[in-house]
Structure formats: C-alpha cells, structure tokens
From TrEMBL, chain A:
Matches recorded under Gene3D superfamilies: 3.10.20.30
Protein name: MoaD/ThiS family protein
SUPFAM superfamilies: MoaD/ThiS
InterPro entries membership: Beta-grasp_dom_sf, Mopterin_synth/thiamin_S_b, ThiS/MoaD-like
Region Disordered, residue ranges: 58-78
Origin organism lineage: Bacteria, Candidatus Aerophobota
Length: 78, 620
C-alpha cells in the first residue's frame, strides 16, 4: 500500500470527490501514475503533464509512499 | 462572388478627408480568406515599402473574415493590420466582441485608413455610408469614457474600437480597445491610430449578411456545440476563463517567474496554490462575444480600501502572469487594478507587465534608484509600486515616458547592462509562455512575421481531430526538432482559421473539420483542410514578404538568452533545459522553403503559392 497526495489542476479538479485541488489516496503497492489516474476516474487523455515530487514524470512512473503527484490538463492560458 | 462577403473595403484618407470603396474580387477572397490574410495582401500592394509606421502615409486596417457575423461558432473576430510602431515589422492583432459582426452588417468586409487628420476625428461606418467626424468631445477621454459618450450620441447599438489617452500620446505599447474590455492588444496599433489623430472607428448596421446555405450552417452550429461539449478540446477550460490556468502555469513553469529568472513553484509558491475561488473572488458575472457559447469573459466588482469601488473586468491569464508571477506580486486586487488601467488607457497588458518586471529587475540590481523612479520602490512584489509604475507608463510620466518608448529606448537610457533583463523581440515583450516549457514557442516568438506572439501556431495543442504527428511536449533535442517541423502546419491552419474570423478558442474546442465545413456553408465554396493549409501558407508568405521587402531580418537579431535556458534554471521542473533555437530554425526554414540566412521565401515557393508579383519584387 502507498499513500500519496494528489493535486489536480484546472478542469481536473472536478475529479476530486473532496472539494478543492488536493486529495489523498491509498494505492496498491507498485502502482504507477497511470493507475493513479484510473483510480481517480480521470481519463488519461485529459492529462498532459505529470509531476511527481516536482519532477517531470509520465504515466508509467512508479509511485511510492509519501509521493506528491500533480496532474495538469492541456495548456489553456491566453 | 463568394457569399457572405460584402466585397467592399472602405478606404479612408484622413489627410484629404475622403473615402472610397476598394472592391474585393473572388480570387482575393479565395486566396486569402479575410482578416490578416486579405489585410497582408492589401497592405503589401498599397503601402509603399519602408513606410515609417507613424508617418501619415502608413495604413491601418480593420478586417473581418467570412465567418464574422455568421452563425459559425465563434465567428466574431476582426483583425487590425499594419506596420507596428513598436517592432517596425508587419503586424496583426486579433479582437473579438461585437465590432467585427457589426462592421459586416454596416456593409463592409473591412476598413483601411491612411493619412493624418489635421485634428482629432472618428470614422463612422453606418449602413453602407462612411463619414469622418470631429472627435474633440472625446479626445482626452479614456476608452470607457469614449464608449459612454459615443453611445449616448450615436445610439446604444453602435460598436466602437477606440484608443485611450495612451494611444493619443503614442505610447508604443498602446492598443485598441473595443467595448471596454476586448483588445486588439499587441503591436502598438493604438499609437498608430494616435499618430493619425484617429480616436475611434464606430460601426452601426443591421444589413443582412447573405449566407450560401443558411440551414446547413445552423445545423453545423448545433453539431459543433455538441462536439465542443464532448471534451476532446479545450471548451471546458475556456469556459472557466483563462485566469484559471494561472496556478497550472506557475507550477509547471510555463508562466515566467521573476522576470524569467525564477522558478514559479519555489519563488512564487503562493500563486501556484491559488484556488479558483480566490482567482474569481470578485467576479460578478460572465460575458461573451457575439453569439459565442463559450462565454469566457468575466466582469468584476471590487471594493477595497486601497482602490475604492472598482467595476471592471476579470484579467486574462497573460495579464495575471505578467503582473503576478513575473513580478512576484501576489496581490490579486492589484492585478484587477492594473488590468483596468491598461484597458481604460488602452495599453497592452503583456507589454506593460514585461516592462514593469524589467524595471523591477533593474532596480533590484542597482542600475536605477528611487531618484530615477520618482520615489517608487520598485521591488519584487511591491504591488503599490507596480500599479503606480503602470500609471506612469500609460501617462508618459517620469521614467514612464522612457518605458513608453519600449525596451530599446529603456536600454538606451539605463545602459547596455540592462539588456540581459529585457525579455523581448524587437521591442515586443515575450508573452507568458516559456519556451523552456514548450520549445516551439521560441521559434514562433523569433521568426513569425509579427514577433513575440503566443498564438500564431496554437502550438501547445493542435485542434481536435488534427493528426499532427509531432510529439507532445518534451524538451529533448529530437523532440525540439520534430515540434519545430510541426509548426508549419499549425501556423498555416491558424492563419486560415484566424483570417476566416473564427476565434482560436472555438478552433481548439471542436473538431478541426468544422472549419472547412463552416466556410463551405457560409461562402458556397467547398473547402478542404488541405486547401486551407495552403491558404494559410500563402498568408504566411505574404506577411514574410512584407518584412523582407522592408529589409527586416529576425534571424541574426537579439533573442533573450534567459528564455532559451542560457543559463539554465538550477531547480524546478524546467531545471537544466536548454533550447536549441538554431536547430529549430533549421527545421522550420527547410519546411517553409525560406532562406536560412535571410528568411526570404524561395522564388519557387512564391510561384507555387501563386505569388508571382511578390516573386518579381523580391527576385527581379
């Protein structure tokens, strides 16, 4: 089991059952970022950037206890 | 003649106080569509080479596209075209709201203005008739005042594109404001209008805009709206308003921080943590452009001890980042205030923010002191000083008068040591999208005919349904190369999309096939995406030829090294990233068939695009 904190930005916030950007989640051991998205019911195509502990990562990145995962939707600033 | 076009451009000569009609034929409409496509062709043909932008002989155009004023989703845009007083290059600036559709309904596809009035005037286009009118009662008013006075005098149904006091004073970053809050923002076109004593263009009309297949376009509209809501594009994000993107930009590094030298999540963590509730704390209601279902605009009402009661508009992302992360300023109230100042006085928020960040950097480095800044303590995060400095720029007061002349003038005044902190291309401040996050941005900022713009190729993401075959993100060398190659198609399609009068937010929200479909239903001419890509490429080549003919060559010119990761950031998600702009230019110029040393389109390319006259001009 790995407890991780997730921050969901922009339109991804709506996938957080708790209000706001942050959500804590327990995952089976050896889970990766893609499996995290599935656990939160986030369609993978809606995520363009993944940061784990502030470092760029991708969906295959293995997560461990205490990791902070940030998920970002496509760029929409103008 | 294709349907939907009126086939007429009003040509106004302010010096002679005359106007006439330029007829558009079907070939110019098919070959260049509208907007800055037709604008580039007209100015290339009618404006003499090397005309100084502030000379009375220069021209400024306000041109709609074939989708402007139709039921096509987001068909609301018009484009201002001309030679920029700021960059002294070709430029175009895109604006939404209601002006474009009303210009069409007033009987014209566009207006071209040349000359200089002997005293302030405004041009009125009403139901086919064009008049030049005395503007003494509005000269000296800011844009909010202009709207009030002219609507009272001419009717609440007029639509106005005007300059504020900044344009009158020819502040080089002055813009043109429509409906108090929509802007033809960049390139300093407000100064161009000011130089002509042209205070405003006013349009009024309800003339029918004939469509080729009215039932079909309504059907397409309904389908496009359904498609938008499926979520393959950015509709949902745009609906929130672009300001909501700010925390993402800061956290990933897309939003420049501390005048491009910092790391957002470390140096401006408070901005990375902004919630949507905080960002939209003062928003009272949302507003939209003509017939647009996205509804991305927002009105605000703010009541604070510092600023009193202020009823104004929600800043967009660019404004937010330019005055927050890039200045390390976390006062959301001050962002609303500077946005209001810029809209009212008519000044580009991206440029104003860039200049303010620059002057803070110079102050913090000790190049200038409070004596130079009229007592203002220009420190990172000092929001009071940031607001006051913005007021100085728009009023040309004290050091604001220097900054109003742009980066090049500021560097001359402060000294060459300041150049490293000037983040611009030919005077145009870089927008709030860092090339260290998306390398293709560096390419577009550097080589697009209208430099330092973030939208010419919508390069973060193609529209839904476009199979670009360029890698998504990544700063590895091979990815930089491939993304540069992809810019050609993105830019070409973007040129067609913009010149058609569609908004980029619509384009990025529904399937790309709606663009040719809407055009076909509106004009009666069938289009394919390939044809539109070629039209867009043709537009790119005319814009480029305009610059080449004037001796402009960006390739060897200054590009801020910080934005290329020289030196690289030492921490954060963009740690160590270096952008190989030369590599990307190699790929891009090969794709475009433009000379690598000069940017000149090849004779073969010009002939292939049917631009024989331009080929003769450039090659003999």
């Amino acid at each position: 089991m790995a407890s991780v904190t997730v921050k969901l930005y922009g339109i991804l916030e709506k996938y957080n059952k708790e209000k706001g950007r942050k959500v804590a989640i327990d995952l089976p051991g050896d889970s990766n970022a893609g499996e995290l998205m599935s656990a939160l019911n986030i369609p993978k195509e809606r995520v363009t950037i993944v940061l784990v502990n502030g470092e760029p990562a991708d969906q295959t990145h293995s997560l461990k206890e205490g990791d902070e995962v940030e998920l970002f939707p496509p760029v929409s600033g103008g | 003649m294709l349907k939907e076009y009126t086939g007429k451009i009003a040509f106004v000569d302010l010096s002679r106080r005359e106007n006439k009609v330029i007829q558009l034929d079907e070939s110019i409409c098919s070959d260049f569509l509208g907007g800055y496509g037709i604008g580039a062709k007209l100015l290339y043909d009618f404006q003499k080479p090397n005309t100084d932008p502030l000379n009375p002989k220069s021209m400024i155009g306000f041109i709609t596209g074939p989708l402007t004023g139709t039921p096509a989703v987001t068909g609301s845009r018009f484009m201002v075209v001309g030679k920029s007083p700021l960059t002294r290059t070709w430029s175009d600036s895109n604006c939404g709201g209601y002006f474009g559709p009303t210009l069409k309904m007033a009987g014209y596809d566009g207006i071209l203005v040349q000359g200089q009035a002997d005293k302030p005037v405004y041009v009125l286009v009403e139901e086919g008739k064009v008049t030049i009118n005395d503007a003494k009662h509005i000269w000296g008013e800011n844009t909010t005042g202009v709207e009030k006075i002219l609507k009272r005098r001419l009717g609440s149904d007029v639509q106005i594109a005007s300059i504020g006091k900044a344009g009158e004073k020819q502040v080089l970053i002055a813009n043109i404001i429509h409906d108090r809050r929509r802007a033809a923002g960049r390139s300093g076109f407000g100064a161009l209008m000011g130089s002509k004593n042209l205070k405003a263009i006013v349009v009024k009309g309800k003339m029918a805009v004939p469509l080729a297949h009215p039932e079909k376009i309504l059907h397409l509209r309904r389908k496009a709206i359904v498609d938008m809501k499926k979520g393959k594009g950015l509709f949902e994000a745009f609906q929130k308003g672009s300001a909501a993107y700010t925390p993402s930009g800061i956290s990933t590094g897309d939003a420049p921080t501390k005048n491009w030298s910092g790391v957002g999540r470390e140096d401006f963590a408070q901005g990375a943590d902004w919630s949507e509730e905080e960002i939209y704390k003062y928003r009272t209601k949302k507003y939209t452009c003509w017939e647009c279902p996205i509804v991305c605009g927002g009105s605000v009402r703010m009541e604070t001890e510092e600023y009193g009661v202020l009823e104004s508009h929600q800043p967009e992302y660019e404004t937010m980042a330019a005055f927050s992360s890039n200045c390390l300023n976390d006062s959301l109230e001050s962002l609303i205030k500077v946005n209001h100042i810029c809209n009212d006085y008519g000044v580009d928020t991206i440029s104003a923010g860039g200049l303010v960040a620059f002057i803070i950097n110079c102050f913090e480095e000790g190049f200038i002191t409070k004596e130079d800044t009229d007592g203002l303590e220009m420190r990172w995060g000092n929001h009071q000083a940031i607001v006051k400095m913005t007021e100085k720029i728009v009023n040309r007061e004290g050091i604001g008068d220097i900054l109003a002349g742009g980066f090049e003038k500021a560097i001359k005044h402060i000294g060459k040591k300041a150049e490293q902190y000037a983040i611009h291309v030919r005077g145009e401040a870089l927008p709030m999208h860092d090339p260290r996050f998306e390398p293709a941005m560096a390419l577009i900022y550097k080589v697009n005919a209208s430099p330092a713009k973030h939208l010419p190729a919508s390069q973060y993401t193609g529209p839904p349904g476009l199979n670009l075959r360029a890698p998504q993100f990544g700063t590895e060398r091979e990815k930089q190369k491939e993304r540069a190659r992809g810019v050609k198609i993105l830019e070409s399609l973007n040129n067609s999309m913009s010149s058609s009068g569609m908004c980029v937010r619509g384009y990025l929200s529904f399937d790309v096939q709606f663009l040719p479909a809407f055009l076909g239903a509106v004009t009666g001419k069938d289009w394919t995406l390939e044809e539109l890509t070629q039209v867009g490429e043709r537009i790119a080549n005319v814009r480029q030829a305009f610059n080449i003919r004037d001796g402009v060559n960006f390739i060897k010119e200054y590009f801020p090294s910080l934005a290329l990761g020289s030196p690289p950031l030492e921490s954060g998600p963009l740690k160590g990233v270096r952008i190989d702009l030369e590599l990307m230019m190699d790929e891009y110029f090969k794709e475009m068939d433009w000379d690598r040393e000069s940017g000149k389109p090849s004779r073969k390319k010009l002939q292939e695009l049917g631009l024989e006259d331009i080929a003769t001009d450039l090659y003999g």
